[in-house]
């Protein structure tokens, strides 16, 4: 990405969508505003992960979850799950 960021109102983005897709594909980041607030960013996708990379990241997540995830025991109530979630 070349670092350029351009803002468009939602109505203008709708009218120029095809052009904005071309610009995003070329590396520009397009910010879409509605009533002056950012609601979306249009960017080109990054490189796809290989099957091996997805598998490795999945294994890393499972290890992380074992260390940091909530301790879910059989028969936990919704209230207990909520309280457990608040700890993190």
From TrEMBL:
Gene3D superfamilies: YefM-like domain
Family annotation (SUPFAM superfamilies): YefM-like (SSF143120)
One Pfam entry name: PhdYeFM_antitox
Protein task: Antitoxin component of a type II toxin-antitoxin (TA) system.
Similarity-based family: Belongs to the phD/YefM antitoxin family.
Protein name: Antitoxin
